[in-house]
Structures are given as structure tokens and as C-alpha cells.
From TrEMBL, chain A:
Any one GO biological process: regulation of filopodium assembly
Protein name: Protein Abitram
Keywords, comma-separated and alphabetical: Cell projection, Nucleus
PANTHER family linked to this entry: PROTEIN ABITRAM
TrEMBL record, chain B:
Family statement drawn from the similarity comment of this UniProt entry: Belongs to the pseudouridine synthase Pus10 family.
Recorded name of the encoding gene: pus10
Name by which UniProt lists this protein: tRNA pseudouridine synthase Pus10
Superkingdom, natural source: Eukaryota
GO MF entries: metal ion binding; RNA binding; tRNA pseudouridine(55) synthase activity
Length: 182, 546
């Protein structure tokens, strides 16, 4: 009896993400199958970029070898610094600006993209020290970056993204296609 | 009897001829005796006219030590009655070196002297544009007093402030240049600053009249209650315009000003512009206006009163201040509005500014002794409530809503409100949180939290406030914690922390951005379902015994 009650309360209590954030997705990033990204948008417009649960990195038994925020010779996301309330100095990102490259132990490499336009506030340096966080807690402590969209764009930046329902539909179609290859 | 000396005569004569009113003449004679301005304008004018003709008749008292120029004029004054010709000659003689007036202009000047003498009382002064004439009469004092009475303020003294059209400065400058030589002959050390200002003369005349109308109120130079009187004179607004081309750097357009010709800017330009340049663009003396200034407005302003107290918030859907997102109101009320409404009506204030020692989130209750707050009441019409009245007011607030409660409500000084923010960072705050754990826990699993003391945590600016605050890592102390298990997935966590600690983030971790956090300590996901502020340890405002 205790057990069912507990499960009920656990379900009745939405997580921090459910309470304050809206989930948006970009499926098959840049045409690469299953490289799905997730954007958690807070009601205050701040966005947290994470891997979607369906991203290949998070699939069966992979291990992350390294994460690199140095996206080109001239540009490292680690050098991003913002100051003041207005977040001066943050790198400005467009939809397909790369955030980092993740290499798995099987030498596959994936690029994670910004997904939205906005100012880069911070990247998650903890995953550099503990890459396992990416696999253990992909939508919380294993986040990739925090981005602040322009105030006037806070509504329009999600227009090109999929809602949670739309994304789930994409995923279920994908699963159907895999089980019934035509 | 006007306190004038022989040396003032040329000055008086020239100013009357220029079309100045009697009081403006007194101003340029640097008469500082208030009573001289308070006598009726017409009486003063007659006296001045008599004074000037006395001079002509040679009946005036002799100065003890005549200067050469004065000796010269005196000898001519003695020439006899009705000798305006003679008199003008004497004037010319006195200012022989400087005077470049052609004879024709001299004639005009004399004509205008007699005109001024004929109907000077009814003509609008070229310098004060009527401010010191009909606009400082008894009927005006009545008007001002009535306007003040209509506002129904509680006060026992007032300070009068006067706002005059900026072109008055231009006219004053023109008059000054017109008689500068005569003023200097009266006394070498006198300067433009020694001329009594229109504003000052107006106050000397009006203050006692207004005080009398308001029965017993004293009109003083410093008071918490200000009565502002504003005059305008659209007819001569263009007087200032030449200054914009003459001194363009003094007139920079500003967003919130209707006109660039503010009094400040005009005064600055007049200080800069050389006399010859001024005289090229503006007549000297100033031209005669058709009408006098109009009395625009009376504005009353009482300095702010500060009220302080402590509040409890019992509701989890009540923001501290109005919550507006994208111009839309999110919650129907707020702590500050619930407290402010009865206070505003008791003090009959126009508005308020609310501040408090920290603040709680919309879904957080504030229990215990409550949170100190202070409220600045803007332009209160009532400012002195007794202790009993404050107590009644507190009761009225508490009756008006069960979402909040107020205690220790009192009137405080502006300075004292600073103590509310003093050492805000060092103060301790006590909270109780209802915590959910993903894994079921037992009493013993969480008991170790009770043993942790002075836990130092690093908090990155929480994501929920990052849009309006700078990104930083702040170190905070969790002084102590105690736990009370509710069921395997829920327990109450009481915390004593340094002020400024973000409790919600300490519990759920904020994407790992607060470290350590409760998830880490308990090695399971945790979430915060409810939060109460139990105490805000700021010992201000002083407690008021019930
Ligand atoms: Zn005047």
C-alpha cells in the first residue's frame, strides 16, 4: 500500500524541469539521423541546451571519451565571459553555431549545436572533469550550455523547433520504421 | 517711507522712464527692506514720482559727502520747478562720457517718463511682466490660499516656491544693462547679484498675505510642505529665442523637457553673452508687453513620510510586488498592494515606494515575526498619525486580507530605513522546506544532515534569476540543518543560512550549479515542494508591544 502511495506522490510532484521549463527539440540535427538536441526554455526566457534522450551518445553502452569546447582554432567556448546584468561580452550564437564536440571511446565524434539564436552565458565545465555526467544526467547536470535569447526574440526562437508532442511523434515514427523496414 | 538716498535718483528716474514698476525700481536700488515692497504698488509709485520731482525741486536731503557727479546734478536740481529740460541736462552732464543717446531719443525718454507718471500704475511692468504688480496683490494671496485649502493638507508651516517664465531673466538683464552705470555710480561695489530678485520680492510681499489667509500657518524658508506658484507669459516667450543662436551650446535638447529654454539654460547663456552682443539682439530697456503674466497653477507638495513594520505572508500564490510578464498582470494582488492600500488612504498619499529586507518568491510563505519593510509615502496630505491611529491602521490592514499580516507598524525617518538594509548580507535567515526524495529514505538516512554545521556552498546565479542578475559564483554558509521525516519520500528540512542563500537551488541543485547540494548529500534526486521563511533576523524596526 505504501508503495502505490509513494509512486503516486512521486508522479504528482513534477520535477524542476516540468515546473519551470518548456521542452523544445531539434531532431536529426543537420540531417544526421537521431542527433536530436533538446532546448529547455525557462519562463524567464533563458535556455539550457542538452542532448535529447534519443541522441546516439546516450544509446546502448557508449562511453564518452572527451568533450571539446574549442570549436575552431580561433574560438573556444571556454573563453566566453559575460559581465553585468546585461551580460556584456558573451559570444552571440546563431541556430547552427557549434557548442562543442563530443568524442566517444569508439572514436565516433558528434558536434552539439546551439539550436537557437542568443547570447552564450555559460558552458558546463563540469562535464569536462566528469564526462560520465552526460550519460548519467543528460537533462540536468550533464547540460551543455546556457543561452539567453534576445528579449524580442524570446518567442520566435522556438518557431523552428519541435514541441514535445511533435518530437515524440518523430521518435515513434522512427521506431516504427526500424521495426518494419520496407 | 521708502529708504532711498539722493544717489538713487538717476536710477529711479531712468527705470520709471523705461517702464518699470515701483517694486522693480526698488529692486534695482537694492532695497532690502521687506516693508518697502509690502506697501501698495500705487503708493510706492506716487512716492517714487514725488521723490524724483523733489529732486527736481531741490528739496531732497543733501548727501553728507557729495561726490563730483552728484554735486554737479545738485546744482542743476536747484534751478527751479518744472524744469524737465534742466533736469535732463543734468542727467546728460552726469553721464557725459558714456551717454551716446541722440537728442531725439532723449526726447522720447522724457515723454515716456511723463507717460509712466500718468498711467504707470495701470501699465504692465517691462521687467517683471506684472508679477510684482497685480499678481502680488491681496486677491492673489486669497487665490493661492484657496487652492491650498482645497487640497486639504495637514500642515502648520509652508515654504513658498515661485516658478517664473525664463524670459524674465532676459528682461532683467536688459534692465540691468540699461542702468548698470547708474547703479555703479550709486555704489561702486554693487553688482547684478545685489539687485533683489523678482522671486524674493514676490515672497516678501506674498508670504505674510498667504499666511494670514491660511490663519496661523507660518510661511517660512524651510518647511516639509511646499506651495509652488507658477506663472507664464506666452506673449513674450520669444524673448529668449535669440540666445539659441547666440549661445547654441547652452541649449542642448533634452528628452524630458518641453522647451530648451529652461530658466537654467537661459541664466547660463546670459552669463556668457557679452553686453554688446546682447544689445545687438535685444532692446534695452525691454519692450512694453501688452498683458501681464498669467497665474498658471498652484502645486502643493509634502515631503515623503516613511512607514515601517514587519509582514507575514501566508499565501503560496501571492507575489511580493505586482507580477507583470509581457505587460500582463499574472496575479491579482501582491503583498505591497495589500499593505499599501489602507496606508495610502490613511495618509492620503499620491503613491508609494516599497522596500524590504530581502524578499520571498511568490510561492514562499513568510512566517514567524515576519519580514521588515518600509514604505515611502509620496506627497502625503496627512503626515502625523498618533500611535493609536497607527494601531488602528495596522488592524485595518490585517482585517482587509487573510493572506498577509502586519505588525510593529510605525512612522520612521528616512534615515532609519537604511538600517533595514544594513548588514543584510551577514544576517541569518531561517527556513523550512518540504523536500521530496526520489529514493525512499528512512529517518537514519537523513539524520546526518542534523550534524552538518557551517556548510560552505558555492552558488552560481540561479537560472531562474539569471535573466536579470549578473552571472557570478557566490559562497554562502548553511549554518545548520534539522530534519523531520514525513514519509519515505518526504521530509521537512529546517535550515539556518546566511542571508542571500538560494534555498530552492540548494535543494534541487539547479543543474548542478549549486555545489554541494542536497541531491549530492543524499545521493538521490531531491526536489523542493514547499518553502517557508521562518525568521528574518533583522532587529529593525523596533518592536511595538501589543
Ligand atoms: Zn516690475
Amino acid at each position: 500500500m505504501d508503495g502505490t502511495e509513494q509512486r503516486e506522490t512521486a508522479q504528482a510532484a513534477p520535477s524542476v524541469i516540468d515546473r519551470y521549463y518548456t521542452r523544445w527539440y531539434r531532431a536529426d540535427m543537420k540531417g544526421k539521423p537521431c542527433e536530436d538536441h533538446c532546448v529547455l526554455q525557462h519562463s524567464n526566457r533563458i535556455c539550457v541546451i542538452t542532448l535529447a534522450e534519443t541522441h546516439p551518445i546516450l544509446q546502448s553502452g557508449r562511453t564518452v571519451k572527451s568533450i571539446n569546447y574549442q570549436i575552431s582554432n580561433g574560438c573556444s567556448r571556454l573563453n566566453n565571459k559575460v559581465s553585468g546584468k546585461s551580460k556584456r561580452g558573451g559570444q552571440f550564437l546563431t541556430d547552427f553555431a557549434p557548442l562543442c564536440r563530443i568524442t566517444c571511446t569508439d572514436e565516433t565524434e558528434y558536434t552539439i549545436y546551439s539550436c537557437i539564436r542568443g547570447r552564450l552565458l555559460e558552458v558546463n565545465e563540469d562535464i569536462l572533469k566528469r564526462p560520465a555526467l552526460l550519460l548519467e544526467k543528460p537533462s540536468t547536470e550533464g547540460y551543455i550550455a546556457v543561452i539567453l535569447p534576445k528579449f524580442e526574440e524570446s518567442k520566435s526562437i522556438t518557431e523552428n523547433l519541435l514541441s514535445r508532442e511533435e518530437f515524440e511523434e518523430v521518435v515513434s515514427k522512427r521506431a516504427a520504421a526500424q521495426t518494419q523496414p520496407s | 517711507m521708502l529708504p532711498l538716498k539722493d544717489k538713487d535718483k538717476p536710477l529711479v528716474q531712468k527705470l520709471l522712464a523705461a517702464g518699470c514698476c515701483a517694486r522693480c525700481v526698488l529692486r534695482f536700488c537694492c532695497v532690502g527692506l521687506h516693508a518697502a515692497y509690502r506697501q501698495p504698488c500705487q503708493d510706492s509709485l506716487k512716492e517714487l514720482q514725488a521723490f524724483v520731482s523733489d529732486a527736481e525741486n531741490g528739496k531732497s536731503e543733501q548727501a553728507a559727502a557729495p561726490e563730483p557727479a552728484e554735486g554737479n546734478s545738485t546744482s542743476h536740481d536747484a534751478a527751479g520747478p518744472n524744469s524737465t529740460e534742466e533736469n535732463s541736462t543734468s542727467q546728460d552732464a552726469a553721464g557725459a562720457e558714456a551717454s551716446e543717446d541722440p537728442p531725439s531719443k532723449r526726447m522720447k525718454l522724457e515723454q515716456s517718463v511723463s507717460e509712466a507718471q500718468a498711467d504707470g500704475a495701470s501699465r504692465v511692468c517691462v521687467c517683471c511682466l506684472g508679477i510684482l504688480q497685480q499678481l502680488s496683490e491681496h486677491t492673489q494671496a486669497v487665490k493661492i490660499a484657496e487652492a491650498v485649502k482645497a487640497e486639504n493638507y495637514e500642515f502648520d508651516s509652508l515654504v513658498l516656491s515661485v516658478s517664473l517664465p525664463a524670459q524674465l531673466c532676459v528682461r532683467e538683464h536688459s534692465c540691468w544693462l540699461h542702468v548698470k552705470k547708474e547703479v555703479r555710480e550709486k555704489c561702486m561695489t554693487l553688482d547684478k547679484d545685489d539687485v533683489i530678485q523678482v522671486k524674493e520680492a514676490f515672497k516678501w510681499i506674498m508670504q505674510s498675505l498667504i499666511a494670514k489667509e491660511l490663519r496661523g500657518v507660518s510661511v517660512v524658508t524651510k518647511s516639509v510642505f511646499e506651495v509652488g506658484v507658477e506663472f507664464t507669459h506666452p506673449e513674450t516667450d520669444a524673448d529668449c529665442h535669440f540666445l539659441a543662436t547666440a549661445c547654441p551650446d547652452c541649449f542642448k535638447p533634452t528628452k524630458n523637457k518641453l522647451s530648451v529654454f529652461t530658466r537654467m539654460a537661459v541664466v547660463k547663456a546670459l552669463e556668457k553673452i557679452p553686453a554688446d552682443k546682447f544689445l545687438k539682439h535685444y532692446p534695452c530697456p525691454p519692450p512694453r508687453p501688452a498683458g501681464s503674466c498669467s497665474f498658471q497653477d498652484v502645486q502643493c507638495l509634502h515631503v515623503a513620510v516613511f512607514v515601517a513594520g514587519r509582514y507575514n505572508k501566508f499565501c503560496r500564490s501571492l507575489p511580493q510586488t505586482p507580477w507583470v510578464i509581457d505587460g500582463e498582470r499574472r496575479m491579482e494582488s501582491s503583498v505591497e498592494e495589500l499593505i499599501a492600500a489602507p496606508i495610502l488612504s490613511a495618509f492620503r498619499a499620491d503613491g508609494f515606494n516599497f522596500s524590504s529586507s530581502g524578499r520571498e518568491d511568490v510561492d514562499v510563505r513568510t512566517l514567524g515575526n515576519g519580514r521588515p519593510f518600509a514604505m515611502e509615502l509620496l506627497n502625503p496630505h496627512r503626515s502625523r498619525l498618533s500611535r493609536a491611529e497607527m494601531k488602528q491602521l495596522q488592524e485595518a490592514i490585517n482585517k482587509s486580507s487573510d493572506k498577509i499580516r502586519v505588525r510593529d507598524l510605525q512612522i520612521v525617518t528616512r534615515e532609519a530605513t537604511g538600517r533595514m538594509k544594513e548588514g543584510e548580507e551577514e544576517k541569518t535567515k531561517s527556513y523550512t522546506a518540504l523536500v521530496w526524495t526520489q529514493k525512499p529514505v528512512q529517518k537514519d538516512d537523513i539524520a546526518f544532515l542534523d550534524e552538518i554545521k557551517e556548510l560552505s556552498i558555492d552558488q552560481k546565479t540561479p537560472l531562474r534569476v539569471l535573466h536579470r542578475r549578473a552571472l557570478a559564483v557566490r559562497q554562502r554558509l548553511v549554518h545548520s540543518m534539522s530534519t523531520r521525516l514525513l514519509d519515505p519520500h518526504h521530509f521537512y528540512l529546517s535550515l539556518k543560512t546566511q542571508a542571500g542563500t538560494y534555498i530552492k537551488e540548494f535543494v534541487h541543485g539547479d543543474f548542478g550549479r549549486t555545489k554541494p547540494n542536497l541531491c549530492e548529500l543524499l545521493k538521490t534526486d531531491t526536489d523542493i515542494l514547499e518553502l517557508d521563511v521562518e525568521s528574518v533576523d533583522v532587529d529593525w524596526p523596533p518592536a511595538i508591544p501589543e
